[in-house]
Structure formats: C-alpha cells, structure tokens
Design a protein that fits this description.
By secondary structure, this protein is mainly α. Helices cover 58% and strands 0% of the residues. The protein folds into three domains: 247 residues, no CATH class; 136 residues, no CATH class; 154 residues. The protein contains 24 helices and no strands. It holds the Pfam family Fungal_trans.
Length: 587
C-alpha cells in the first residue's frame, strides 16, 4: 500500500473532498502536467521543444541523469538496503516497491516520459541509493575510497531532496513522498545535520497532512490495511517532528488540536491481503514483537516528549519556579511509568532471548532507550545547576548523570562496526543531543565530585573512540572538541587542588585541525588555526569571565542556552564560566 491513492481525491482538503461531502461528483482537475508553463502559453501552445533546457521538464531530465546508467549498479545498492536496513527502518513495502522498480526500468522513453515517470516514487529510490552507497563502502577502506563513497551518497541525497520538492508540483501528494521525507530526515540525523532535518521532517509532515494522515483512517472508513499503514507513517513523523523540535528549541509542525489519532495495533499487515488484514487480531506486544511494536511504545513516549516540549518553553517564562519544578517531577514519573510498561525485550534491563529470532530487536531497543534518555536529559538539564540550600534540585542532577551515563555506555559499546551497524546506530535519538557533553559540563561544574574520576575516565575513552573514527564529520569533531575542553577544565581544577596527576588526554588533533580550520563557519569564528587541547594549553588561559561571554548566573542557563554544536565560541564561554564559578565556590 505504499502507492495507495490519496483519499477524497488528490489531497485531503480539495475539490474531491468537498464534492464527496455534498454527495455530488466532481470534475477531474489537472494533475500538474502543464506546470511550469504560463496560462497563455498553455492555451496557445508551447513553442519550446519538449526537452528544452528552459522548459518545465528540464528538472526531470536532470534527475533521470543522476541515476547510474547501468541497472546492475542500482540493483546492487537497492539489494544492500533491503537486506540490511529495510526491516530496521520500516522503510518500504518490498513487493510494491519492486513492482514500480521494474516498471520504471521497462518504461519506453519518448514524449510520454512524464506520464510513465513517477517522480514521487523516484524520490524514495534516490534516498535508498544514498544509504546503499554508504553500505557498499568496504571496511576498512582508504581515505580516497571513503571520500568517493560519501560524495556518491551525497549526490543521491541531493537528488532525493530535489525530487521531493518538485514532485508535488507535477503529481500532487502521495505516501511515497511521506516515506521519502522520513528517510531523508533519518539520513540527515545520521550525518548530524539536525537543523536541516527539521526542515525535511516538516515537509514530510505537510505531505502527510495533505493526505489526511493527521485524521485516523477509521474516521474516514478506510480499509484496515490502509489504516495501519497510515498510522505507522504518522507515528514515525510525530516522533521525528517533536523530538527534533525539542532538540533544536524550534517550533514543531504538528498541532495535536488538529489531529485525530489512534494508537497502532500490534499487527504486521504488510504480508496480509486486505481481507486478511480486516479480520486480523492484534498480538500482545508484551510477548510477541513485530516490526510495529517499537512504534507503539515510541508514540507513547513521543506524547510525553510533547509535554516536555511545552513545559520547557512555558517554564522559561513562568513566574513560579516551584510550580515549574513540580511539573518536571510529574513528567519524570511519567517517563518511569513508560519505562516500566516496556516488554521484557525492550526493558531498560532487557531480556535478550528473542534477539536471535528477530534481528531488528537490538536496534529497536536501542532507539527506545536513547529516546528515553534524550527526553529525560532534556527535561532536567535546565535545573542542573539551580542553587538550593535544601538540594531541592538534586533529582535533576541525579537524573542527568544516570541517563547521560547510560546513553554514553550505548555509544561506547559500538566497537569496529560494519557500515550497516554504523548507519543503524547513528539514526537514533542520541544523535540529537550529546550525553558526553552533559557529563563534561557536570565535571567542570563539580570537578571534585565523588563520581568525577569515573566520568572523566569514560569521557577520555569516548574522545579517543571519536578521534579514531575516520567517518566522523565536522559536526562530530566539533562535539568532541567541546568535550575535550570540558575534560581539560575539570582536570585543571583538580590539578590545582592537588587531586590529579598527569593523565592521558586523547585529542582529535590533526583531523580536527584540518576540518575546523578549513570551515570557519563550523566553529562560529574565523580563527585560522586549531590547537589540540592540553593541560598546559588550558593553564595559559584565564578561567572566568571575559567580555562578550555569557553571564555567570547559572539560574539563567536554561533549555534555550544550548546553541548549535559547532558554535564553539559560545560553548567555550559557557564552560569557562562554569569552571570559574566552581573555583569561586571551592575558595
């Protein structure tokens, strides 16, 4: 059902919809075949050749030219995606997709190319090829081979984005565009381009809303198989929309007041006919996992994340801090109730007995865990350094440390991954925030705390792992650079107090220097040289307030004070101010 028609015509609110409600037939409107021509040109006939570079179809020929000429190359990349990622991502219905795939390659070129070419489906193919290029890269490989792989993957990614934008103008909306938007958003999360993922996720939401996916299919009296398929798409969109918005502090696209949603049934309908799906009974998710099961619990968690999102912005303006913190504690209880409702194979202390039978369980469990820790850290981090003589905010500190350590453990457990494992691991919610950075800031603020030694040891291992990861891009390197700075500041404070001897500090050194120096925008400043951090380097810098830095009033440090990860100047100011404040408290 990946190419099911949009109900009530070409869009949810449209001429077909209005005609249906008044009980009359409606004329078919143009599907966009004349898009790009002016009205007068359309009436008088175009004088431009059909394949003119100035014509409206030039974009289509360019997109077709982006595909490899040999079908065998595309076959290989598609096969890699289907075998290694499709089950984990719940991306496409393989039989339906392959039927369109064969039709595409069997089409006859000519003046009816536009009628034979489904550009909405082509956007899905392009983003699948982008993932396939990553999967096709051998491990280990040379720097040149890795660069070629990344460039080829980005080529297909840009083609997918272009076709995603163009397709609605020619053909209207379809579930294929929604699926393409979800996959493109996941690709951007993998590359840690979170700001861009906010845009593509919002576009996918609009495509879904245009098809009425925000209204549950039962209200539209749709077939059961279509209902469950639409619910799965909407559930994925809802989670991506609210979690990315929370991570960035930007508005989300879905207004629940305009939605009529129902929870998914734990039924895998893709292998059933319409008649079989209509009579199929849901399976108990506590004992029988399906590819749909994680979406059920993810959607429940997303509703809590939506409350955290609302609370964060309301709490920043409230005049009653006590009421705001009471709301935080209530949401903390909701998160724990959610965690307690997980089946044993998804539990925070999981039972792994089904992992061999269902290969995707490992990754679905990791996605749920990382989303839980992301939500919990984001909920509490605004209260991390709030002063209280009665330690009223200690639960927030404990929650941040607990979830950040658990999330860091997940990251450190990924040793010498295959490309498939790397991609699967790096599309989770932990990409939206950095638990290592939270722990680093905690060590800077409390360099003599009872847990600081253990935290610093794990942070050093994390930096070493990151610095030796050849696939780490400038966004990841910028994160690592900030974590290194946290380690240095904490060690300097401990060394000053005589509590620390010389400790090995891994550095991103030359790789950070090259990437951050070659892209000044990635650091937020136009510095010409990057020097690896060391204790001697930190000792030469004065810790404390400098002109232009943020205030040392930690009460003002809140949810909205988390800038882009590559804004290194801001991060450095925050860390220096926290370390200066910690020093003043110690003295």
């Amino acid at each position: 059902m990946r190419d099911a028609p949009s109900y009530h015509g070409n869009s949810y609110f449209g001429h077909h919809s209005a005609a249906a409600f008044i009980g009359d037939t409606s004329p078919d409107l143009s599907s966009g075949i004349h898009i790009g021509y002016s009205h007068r040109t359309h009436l008088g006939g175009s004088t431009q050749p059909f394949r003119s570079e100035r014509g409206p179809y030039a974009q289509l020929w360019e997109l077709l030219g982006s595909l490899p000429r040999r079908k065998a190359v595309v076959d290989k990349l598609l096969r890699l995606f289907l075998l290694q990622l499709n089950d984990t991502f719940d991306a496409i219905h393989e039989k339906t997709f392959m039927r369109h795939y064969e039709e595409f390659w069997d089409r006859k070129a000519g003046c009816n190319d536009l009628a034979n070419l489904n550009l909405r489906w082509l956007s899905v193919l392009f983003i699948i090829l982008a993932f396939g290029e990553l999967l096709d890269c051998p491990q280990p490989c040379s720097v040149e081979a890795q660069r070629d792989c990344e460039d080829s993957s980005l080529h297909f990614y840009w083609s997918a984005r272009k076709s995603l934008v163009i397709a609605p103008s020619f053909y209207g909306e379809s579930p294929d565009l929604t699926r393409a938007g979800i996959l493109i958003t996941r690709y951007l999360i993998y590359t840690k381009r979170i700001s861009e993922s906010w845009l593509t996720g919002s576009f996918a939401v609009r495509m879904a809303q245009a098809q009425g996916m925000h209204v549950d299919g039962e209200h539209l009296r749709l077939p059961k198989k279509v209902i469950e398929t639409r619910r799965r798409l909407w559930s994925q969109l809802y989670f991506l929309d609210i979690s990315i918005a929370l991570a960035l502090g930007r508005p989300n696209s879905i207004n629940e007041k305009h939605c009529v949603s129902r929870e998914l049934d734990n039924t895998w309908v893709d292998d059933l006919s319409n008649e079989e799906a209509a009579v199929a009974r849901p399976i108990d998710p506590q004992t029988c996992p399906t590819p749909t099961t994680p979406l059920i619990f993810q959607h429940r968690l997303a509703r809590i994340i939506a409350q955290i999102y609302d609370m964060q912005f309301v709490a920043s303006a409230t005049s009653d801090p006590s009421a705001a913190y009471d709301a935080v504690l209530r949401l903390e209880d909701d998160l724990h109730r959610w965690a307690g409702s997980l089946p044993s194979y998804f539990s925070l202390v999981p039972n792994h007995c089904l992992d061999q039978q269902y290969a995707y369980l490992r990754w679905h469990r990791q996605y749920l865990h990382s989303a839980f820790h992301f939500a919990r850290i984001t909920l509490h981090r605004a209260f991390l350094f709030r002063p209280s003589i009665t330690n009223r905010f200690q639960p927030s500190r404990d929650a941040c440390i607990s979830s950040a350590c658990a999330d860091l453990k997940i990251k450190l457990s990924l040793h010498s991954p295959t490309m498939a494992d790397r991609v699967k691991a790096h599309v989770g919610a932990h990409q939206l925030s950095n638990s290592a950075l939270i722990l680093g800031i905690i060590t800077v603020q409390s360099p003599h705390g009872p847990q600081t030694d253990a935290i610093l040891s794990d942070l050093q291992s994390y930096c070493y792992q990151q610095s030796n990861d050849s696939w780490l891009n400038e966004y990841g390197l910028a994160e690592t650079r900030v974590v290194e700075l946290c380690i240095v500041r904490a060690m300097q404070a401990r060394q000053t107090a005589g509590l620390s001897q010389d400790v090995f500090l891994p550095s991103v050194s030359s790789r950070s220097a090259v990437l951050l120096r070659s892209d000044p925008a990635s650091t937020g400043t136009a510095t010409s040289t990057y020097e690896p951090f060391s204790l001697s380097h930190a000792a030469d810098k004065q810790i404390g307030h400098r002109p232009g830095q943020i205030s040392t009033d930690v009460q003002s440090w809140s949810f909205n004070d988390f800038p882009e990860l590559t804004d290194f100047t801001y991060r450095e100011g925050l860390i220096d101010n926290l370390s200066g404040l910690a020093s003043s408290h110690d003295s």
